[in-house]
Structure formats: C-alpha cells, structure tokens
Specification:
The protein is built from eight helices and nine strands. With about 260 residues, the chain is of the alpha/beta class. The protein has a single domain, classed as Nucleoside phosphorylase domain (Rossmann fold, 3-Layer(aba) Sandwich). Helix 6 links the parallel strand 7 and strand 8. It binds hypoxanthine.
Length: about 260
C-alpha cells in the first residue's frame, strides 16, 4: 500500500456504498477463524460482496477465511459482517491488516466487534468456550499508528459492551488476549511467557485492528473463541483443522450472542 491508508479507506468506503447500495453502516463485525457460520444468524447473504472488489483489499491466504463483506440489518443497526481478515503474518504490512477497520470507519461505523480463535491459557476453558477480551498485550512489535498519534489505550475493549454481553450470557468470562506474530503457533516456553505476562489467551490477530478501531473513536467489543489449550499446557498437538472445527461447532451459539449484543447497542 503506497497510498495514504486513510485516503484509500475513504475510496473503499465510497465503493462499498456503491456496491451494497447502503450509504452508511453503524457496526462492523469481523468474524475470525471458524466463526463464519455465525454470519447466517445475523442475516442472509443477499447483499454480499467480495472484498477484492474494493480498493486496497487483497484475497485472504487462509482456509476458512472467505474474504467477503455482507451488509445486514440487525435490530436498528446497519451492520457490516466481514468474513475473513488479513493477518499480520501474511507480510502485507499493518496498513493492509487494518484496512477493513478503517474502511468501516470511513463508512460511518461507530461500533466494532472483533472475533477470533485463540489458544486458551486457562485449562477450565474447554474448546468452544467464548471469552470476552478485557485487554490485550501486543507482542507484534508493530502498530497501525504512524507518527505522533499518542492514543489513549487504557480501555481498548469497552466495559459497557462487555457488560451488555455478560448481561445476555452471564457464563461469559473475561481475559487478556496476547497477539503473537504467527503464523507458527507458540512454543510451550512462549505460552508460559504469555501466562507470566498476565495473558489468558494467545492468538495472531485482533490487537492491531483494535488499536485502529480506537484511533477511529469506535467502541470495541472483542470475543475470543477458545479452540485449543495453549501449546504445552496439555499433551495435545495443535492443528488448524481442529481450530476450524471448534469454531464451527460453536458458531451458531456465537451468532446468537452477537445478534443479541447488536440489538442492544
Ligand atoms: N495460538 C495462536 N493462535 C491460535 C491458537 C493458538 O493456540 N488457537 C487458535 N488460534
């Protein structure tokens, strides 16, 4: 991306409005690995485009990441559902990782719900357990902010939105999400480090997007779906298919939760 990323996001927002025939969106929901079936709970695919039809987007590299944007009405909120994301480990740079968030912001979005699949660092969280993100540790060594943009990140993940989610499902736990670079899963030593740093979940997305969302003054809700215990915490080996399966099994329940949250915004 050689162009100014904010200008590129504005261009993408104009094209999004043209293709979806929706002038302005209120909410962006980013569906992570295995979360895509939740999209159908939020609304049907009548108004759906492929991201590559918009300026600045490239096709996602990962199986289970469809690379589509669907516009639906949930309650009173015009909602944009993003299926598939650009990951930092794809090597396309941070502006590419946060381009969809910036595009959504340029199309009027004020609330951003970021979902992901994660390794759980608490063994009581069995695969298929959703956990609200209460804070993050960004171990990518990178940021979407360039220059003297001193952003307050003392409440990246909105307490108000977490409370709405807990009101809907009081079994929801909260935790600190640690974003690693990936694409390799963590070593057992890295998992122990993440625990010692105060982390509860490990993954390869979300923190950079959340920073971009806060830069755009959006309220952010983050939900991680635990798909496996962090490496070395059990004897289990990690593989991407299992991550997708755990997501699929929980997706309709997750869709329900997302729908109820959006209806109460
Ligand atoms: N680590 C990083 N990312 C992940 C994991 C994990 O254990 N599970 C699902 N995504």
């Amino acid at each position: 991306m050689s162009q100014d990323p904010y200008e590129l996001a504005k261009l993408a927002a104009v094209k999004l409005a043209e293709l979806t025939k929706i002038e302005k969106h209120d909410v962006l929901v980013v569906l992570g690995s295995g979360w895509t079936p939740a999209a159908d709970v939020l609304g049907n695919g009548e108004n759906e485009i492929v991201v590559t039809d918009l300026p600045g987007f490239s096709a996602p590299a990962v199986a289970g990441h469809a690379g589509k944007l669907r516009s639906v009405k949930v309650g009173n909120s015009r909602t944009l559902i993003q299926m598939g994301r650009t990951h930092y480990y794809e090597g396309k740079g941070v502006p590419a990782v946060v381009h969809s968030v910036r595009t959504a912001i340029a199309s009027g979005v004020k609330t951003i719900i970021l979902t992901n699949a994660c390794g759980g660092l608490k063994l009581e969280w069995k695969p298929g357990t959703p956990v609200l993100i209460k804070d993050h540790i960004n171990l990518t060594g990178s940021t979407p902010l360039v220059g003297a943009r001193f952003l307050d990140v003392s409440e990246v993940y909105s307490k108000r939105l977490r409370n709405i989610a807990k009101d809907i499902d009081n079994s929801l736990d909260e935790g600190v999400y640690v974003q690693f670079h990936g694409p390799q899963y963590e070593t057992p030593a890295e998992v122990r480090m993440a625990i010692n740093l105060g982390g509860d979940m490990v993954g390869m997305s979300t923190a950079l997007e959340a920073i971009a969302a806060r830069e755009g003054n959006c309220e952010v809700l983050g939900i991680s779906l635990v798909t496996n215990p962090g490496a070395g915490l059990t004897n289990e080996k990690l593989n991407h298919e299992e991550v997708l399966e755990a997501g699929l099994a929980a997706a309709s329940r997750m869709g329900d939760l997302l729908k109820k949250v959006i209806e109460r915004l």
